[in-house]
Amino acid sequence: MGKIYFDHSATTPVHPDVAEEMIGYLTGKFGNPSSLHSFGRTAKKAIEGARVRVAENIGAKKEEVVFTSGGTEADHLAIKGAVYANREKGNHIITSSIEHHAVLDTCKSLEKEGYEVTLLPVDGYGMVSPQVVADAIRDDTIFISIMHANNEVGTIQPIQEIGDIARERNILFHVDAVQSFGKIPVNVKDLKADLLSISGHKIYAPKGIGALYIRKGINWRPYNYGGGQERKHRPGTENVPGIVAMGKAVELAAGDMEKESARLAGLRDKLIKGVTEGISHVRLVGHPTIRLPNNANFVFEFIDGGAMLLNLDMHGVAASSGSACTAGTVSASHVLLAMGIPHQIAYGSLRLSLGRSNTEEDVEEFLRLMPEIIKRLRTRVS
Question: How many structural domains comprise the chain?
Fold first, then answer.
């Protein structure tokens, strides 16, 4: 049995079709898109073609799509660009306690500048209540940011209802769709999003490319300067190969999303059933049904998560204990703690995230290995 990669929420391999389309812009079509000669025009045309692909697949206009270096930068641009532009209206920001650190740390930095941030609680499934959002709104609230689906536990949030509330109160609403895009439908009009972040390396494009949707007409301004690229929203010479790759990856993801998501959901459910029925003192984390089709997250009692991951790796299985951005730390996941899971149990978390390469044989092999690994680790503890 070869190696098994169950960490697609951390990153995905570049799809062969994506690599093929991208490679020409690393070699012969290397022009700077700002140049007026044919090399530059070729690069510019490729960027605009990719922009159309992204826009069409999120229900946006092409001029509403800004390419970034990834999901993290897209979050930064969304948040800071919105709150700086609306400072005269107020200084209150609402987000949830389970957001990615790209959002949480940006909000924390804004607190040092005089902004006030409300971190909303979640229920035991990791879900934000629209009513809790509504109750947190104040006269000076200018911005709300809630992720579409959680990167660790996979719970899908009631974004449309929250978006309706924000739109009714004339408050800018940002959605971090980095984990949901390409797995479930993401349409900015349906979600009532004013700003929305996506990332390429979660959908089989390379690392280092992402995009931010900025709804036309909203009060938002850039906070970086030095060039006119991306309509002055994000200055700097464009990553043409990455942008081309992302455009192709978006097209591929949209083309077979329904079929592939159904396949992954079947594998996910088999994993969940096998783990919860075959191992004692374990529970599924996140909503049992309203979750990403490729995500299965568990907490194992009497287990050290780091040791569990190392044992899996020795058997050729790549998995995660949570967000890749916090891998290697000794602190328990802020997401699990916010959901009310005790520290001592949260340390034994395991995130399995499936992708295109995974098969039923992968799942069966994991279910064969995991009970013995858990038994061995618990024996050492006792």
Answer: 2
